[in-house]
Amino acid sequence: MSSPTTKCPYPAGEYAPVAWPLSRRGDVVPAECGQLRAASPIARVKTLTGDDAWLVTSHALARQVLDDGTHFSLRETAAEGRPRQYALTIPPEAVNTMGNVNSAGLHQEVLRAFGPRSGPASAEWMRERAHELIDGMVAEGAPVDLRQRFAEPYAAVMVSEVLGLPHEDGCRLMAGLDLGFVTSPEAFDGCTANWDKDFAYVLRRVRGDHASRRGLIRRLCELRDDPDRDGADLTDEMIAAVVTSLFGAGAMSTYVFLLHAVLTLVRHPEAMERLRARPELMPRAVEELMRCTLSIGDGLPRIALADVRVGEVDVRAGELVLVCVEGANFDPEAFEDPERFDIDRSPNPHLSFGSGPHFCPASAISRVHAGEALTALLDRLPKLRLALPADQLVWRTGNIKRVPERLHVLW
């Protein structure tokens, strides 16, 4: 099904009547998504920095922008003088990790590292880690903060294993991770301090003893040193930047999704019971959870490289376009009864991993790790539930992700 091509009632110079960014609450779809999608699936908004941007809320137009690597660029969002959704508080090289990977010819290596496979970070390995963490929760006794006791350490150890970082260091890196995802109208003193610290740590690992290297770090170092490959474009600094970026993006996305998934499941106890009885349905449930969870809070940014038509709007070269994922994932033109949580939904063309040239390289392993973690939680904690009403949750502000500060649970 295609999205309606409603003419934009908010032309250049006029702005959609919404406050951007949208609500930071992650358990309620912002009403503005549906209102804008119906009235104007691409509309003008003011960003946090006061810049102009086009906000896309329909599934069809979101796919057009994300799939079109010719007319739209992620790399350019970090370039000097471009309009921004918020101030650049991380180094430009962290913005375009996959672009740097692609330019160095490393795309397949990253996909291979984050692909489901036997050995380290396999489904069996992740299942063991999940049960170890649940053992600790049970020994501690309810209530526990699922974020601190399960989601964050599970994410840290999984991504560390793939990248080749010591597990204990992954947990340390996780401690300051939120600082790298701050949104602000302007850069501030120390805004890159956590990145600088983590980058320096990873660079030491890259330059360390060969015998101690493993995972993706080892593979990238082997390619750098391969005499049969022109490795001039693959420096220690590039490897460290790629690994640091992948850790941040992978660990953050992993733990935030798990919190959202549990929050969704406990609000649908009939689905929880069905998944306990039929765990083979978990892969489909994960897809639906990825569609309907609201972790992406600020839109996926792209800069137009040339004049291009998007729906009924002429986007000019140099303009900023923001893809509102929650708008696209709840578009009734793409999903029947989108407000319903339906683990049998098929097809399910959600855009939670993005689309096109910057499609998330960890999508395969993310599906596996999510299924293993959620299956373990439902199996071991049959009465899993929130320790306080959902409307009492505190949602973090000033962050790229919608994430609850804590998620205390009982069982």
TrEMBL record:
Q: Which Gene3D superfamilies match?
A: Cytochrome P450
- Is Metal-binding among this UniProt entry's keywords? yes
Keyword annotations of the record: Heme, Iron, Metal-binding, Monooxygenase, Oxidoreductase
The UniProt entry, under InterPro entries, shows: Cyt_P450 (IPR001128), Cyt_P450_B (IPR002397), Cyt_P450_CS (IPR017972), Cyt_P450_sf (IPR036396)
* Classification via Pfam families: p450
SUPFAM superfamilies (UniProt xref): Cytochrome P450
Molecular function (GO) terms for this protein are: metal ion binding; monooxygenase activity
What family name appears in the similarity comment?
Belongs to the cytochrome P450 family.
Q: What is this protein called?
A: Cytochrome P450
Look up and give the organism this protein is from: Streptomyces doudnae
